Amino acid sequence: MLELNKSGTDRSEPGRLPAQDPGPDAAPDARPAGASPSTGPDASAGRVPLRPYLIAGAILCGLYFLYSYFQYARFGSPSWDLGIFEQEVRAYAGFDAPVVDIKGPGYLILGDHFSPIVALLAPLYWIWPSAESLLFAQAALFALGAVIVGRTTQQILGGRSGLCVTVAYGLSWGIQEAVKADFHEIAFAVPLLALVCRALLLKRYTAALLWSLPLVLVKEDLGATVAVVGFLLFVYGRRLQGALLAAFGVAAFVVTLVVLIPAASSAGRYDYWTKIDKNGEQDVSMLDSVLGVLNSSVKIEMLVFLIGITAFMALRSPLTLLIVPTLGWRLLSQDSNHWGMVWHYSAILMPVLFLALADGVRRSRGSHRPWLASYAKVAVPVAAAIAVAMTQHLPLRDLLRPETYRTDDARSQAARAALDAIPAGSRVETDITLMAHLTSDRTVYWVGGAPGTAPDIVAINLDFGWSRPIQDPVAYAEQLHPEARYRLKHRGGSFVVMERTTPEPDRIPGVRGD
Asked: Which of 156, 287, 371, 492 fits a 20 to 30 Å CA distance from 61?
C-alpha cells in the first residue's frame, strides 16, 4: 500500500502528474513485465527541471527579437499593424482612450478589434516608448509559449522529448511568420492557450478554466475557442464547469461582436462580417461560404502543413478541437490573406497543436496497432526534423545572411534623413515605410485616410508600390488636402517630406471634439 501511494496510482500528489487516460487503443498494461509501478515519465513529472527550458526560451526570444529588430531598423515593416498597435499602447500608457488615428482621425480601436489586453503593455511602454518594445514583448510571449509547451511535453512523455518539441514549436512556421508580421495582439493568446492545454493534459481542470477566461480580452473571436475549452471540460467529466465555461464563451463571443464592438465603432457595426459575406463588391451567401471552405489549393496546403508539422500525431488528441473556431472563420473568409501560411493567423494554433502532438504520442504508445505504437516512438524527433528542415524557407533563415544586419544601406540612410526632417509632436500623414518610426512622438495618419485634417507634414516613400507613380509629390499632397498648401521640405532617395505652408484649420477631425 505504501508503494502504491508513492507511485501515485490511487491519487495525485502535489507536483505529480495525475494518471492519464492512455486512449482507446491502449493495452491494459503497457509496462514491461517486472517494471516498477513508479517508473516512467509520469513518476518523474514533478522533477522536470525548469532551467533548460528557460535557457531555450531565452534563445528563442533572442532570435525572434533579433529578426524583428533588424526588420524594423531596415524600414521593412510589412504592414501598418505595428504603427496601429503602438498608437494604441501609447494611448493606454498615457491613460487615454485607445484612439488610433492611423485607422482614421479619432478612431477608437476597440470598434475594430476587441483587444483590451494590449493595455498590459503600458508599463513596458513607460520604460521603453518605442515600437521596439512591442516587438520585444511579442518575442518574449512567443518564447514563453515554447517553455510551457516543451516542459509539459517532457512531463508527459519523459526523456528528451520536451527539448525536441521546444525546437519544433520554436521554429514552427506559424510562429516564424507571426514574427515576420510584426506585433499583433494574438501574442498574448499563445502562452494562454499553452497554459490551457497544459492544464487539460495534467487534469488540472479548474486551472484550465481560469487560464481560458482572459482569452476573451485578446480578440473577439476567441470567445468561441473558450466555448470549446468548456466542451472539453464537459467531456472530461467536469460537466458543471464545462457547461458554464461553454456558455460564458458563447456569450462573450456574441456580446463582443453584437454589442461591444458596434458601440465603440463609428459605423455602429462589426466591419469584419464583410470578410465572409462579400467577395469584393459581390455578395456571398453563408451556404456558398460553407461550400467553399476547401475551394482553394492555398487552404488545403495550409491545412496539410498545419497538421504535418506535428508528424500528424496531433490528430490523435481531442485538444485539436481547439483549433476549429480559428480555422472556421479563416476558411469561411473571402479574404485570401486569411487562407495561407503567411501573416500571424496561425500562431495561436501552434501551442495547441504541439501539445496535441504530445498527447497523441502518449495515447499511441500502448496502441494495439504495432505500426502506430512504433511510429509514436519516433514522432517527436520527426516533428523536430520537419521544423528544422522547413526553416530554410522561413523568415529566421535570414539571420544567417550578413545583409540582414546592414542598416547603413542607401535606402535606410535616406529613410532616417526623412525622419530627421519631421519635427517631434507634428501631425504626419505617411505610408507604411516610415509609419512605425513616427508613432512614438507624433500624431500619425494613414496616407489618404485623413481628409480635412491638413496635417503638418506629408511624408511618402515614392517606391512604396503606388497603383500609379507619383510624379509631383507636392501636387499629390495638395490633392489629398485641398484645404491646405504644401511645399517640399526634404527629398532624399525615394523619400519626400512636404510641410504645410498655410495656417492650421480651426477644426481638425478627430482632434478637437469633432
From this structure: 156
Letter for the amino acid at 25? D
Look up residue 354 and give its amino acid. F
* Separation in Å, CA 234 to CA 110, 185, 229, 230, 245: 32, 29, 9, 6, 9
Listed residue (443, 463, 512, 454) closest to 485, CA to CA: 454
Judge contact between 222 and 213, C-beta under 8 A.
Answer: no
Convert the pLDDT of each residue in 123-169 to its tens digit: 999 999 999 999 999 999 999 999 999 999 999 998 889 999 999 99
Query: Helices in 365-401 by DSSP H: which ranges?
Result: 370-390
* Inter-CA distances, 423 with 378, 415, 426, 499, Å: 59, 15, 6, 10
pTM comes to 0.89
Identify the CA nearest to 298 among candidates 254, 257, 342: 342
Q: Cβ(220)–Cβ(36) under 8 Å? A: no
CA distance 48 to 66: 29
Retrieve residue 365's grid coordinates: 504508445
Q: How many residues does the chain have?
A: 514
**CA-CA-CA-CA torsion sign (443, 446, 449, 455):** positive
427 DSSP β-pair partners: 443
3-state SS class at 40: coil
Contacts of 132 by beta carbon, 8 Å cutoff, 6+ apart: 69, 72
* Phi/psi at 489 (5° precision): -100, -40
DSSP 256: I
Spatial distance between the Cα atoms of 86 and 89, rounded to a whole number of angstroms: 5
Residue among 325, 26, 375, 22 nearest 201 (CA): 22
Sign of torsion over alpha carbons 296, 298, 299, 304: positive
